[in-house]
Fold:
Amino acid sequence: MKLTGHGGKEVVERILPGGMAGSIISDMPELEVDTQTAHECIDIGYGFLSPLDGFMGSEEVDSVCEEMSLPDGTLWSIPITLEANDDTIRKKGFREGDEILLTYHRKPLAIMKTGEVFQLDADRVAGKIYGTSDPKHPGVRRTVSRKGKSISGKVILVGEPEFQPPFDRFWLTPRNHFSLYRDKGWEHVVAHQTRNVPHTAHEWPMKYCWFAANEDLSVEVPHTGVLVNAVIGEKRNGDYIDEAIILGQAELANAGYFRKDTFAVSFTLWDMRYAGPREAVHHAIMRTNLGCTHHMFGRDHAGVGDFYKPYDAHSLLKQVREQLNIKPVFMMENWFCPICSEVTSSGLCDHAATAQNFSGTLLRSMLIDGVQPTRQVMRPEVFQTVQAASDTYGFGSPFVTDSYLQNRGNVFKLADPRKEVSP
Ligand SMILES: [Zn+2]
Structure:
């Protein structure tokens, strides 16, 4: 099966065949990478970031910053770079053409054929990508904090990461996504990007989008699915824990709020940049590589604080519409209206004065205290699942705490193929 992804290009896996890695990598110089780079190696290896086959060099970064495209003209909005500190590079003496072994937690992750070693102008990149160099912006902080030099190069995974419970049940590669749609008979798939446990003001927009994405397909049997694709990456205090997000979303189908033949949950390893419009374009690109035909974009998609206007992301997506192989579905703000007695859209309901936007602090404090919200706000089954995930994975909280950051279980583990080589 040929998988067509972003830019109309084939999604290709870059993974060494099983059993080959042990002898190839045993003498390679090593470079330990951080979590963001490990995630992006895995993304490149499976094709989540297709057509990228490695980390960007200076020409690509310039092109992404200035033209919002790769040098060949393919739309691309966020630089994907690997940084290493100057001392390490000097000590190891990496040169162009060298093959180096990228390790994560000291386990072999990927082989990179070294291209260019260059100095990234992080302030300039931040200004272009985030539209601000304000250090209060978490994406700016992320970009500027990655000190040292950047190393470009093509990447090939040395093995497949082993996802740990409960993530193992939701791990789908791009290839697996395409197979899933074929098995379910989906011709259209609308992606829902999330970092949240679902309350009903998340659930209803997914349902609206399911109608929107079905377009003119017949409705006798389902031809359209909703794919909830969570992003799993660096966590900050106060975020929902990953386990509660993914299990809470899956519960929507377990409890029947979505039929199992119209709904699926998976995740992508990605460290949020909170780059608003440019990140919205990036999400569209990643979900194209998962075979999605439509992508929902709500109010202030991938934004943070008040750095972006509520519909800036929609405006940019409209500008690049012709270069996308996925159709954006734009949503307004949703709220629960006590007069309409339902979750509705700010574009429909004319009771703005009494509308309740319950995504804020009240719901958070209820979840922390274990107080069950009304079913109009959060489905009881979702609430129970989130409480169970708090106990099992969250050290008693559905939100990220210091205990969680220090002691949480691994999302994935890497095998060490060097151990399989007989001494
Ligand atoms: Zn109303």
Observations:
- The mean pLDDT is 94.
- The first strand starts at residue 30 and ends at 32.
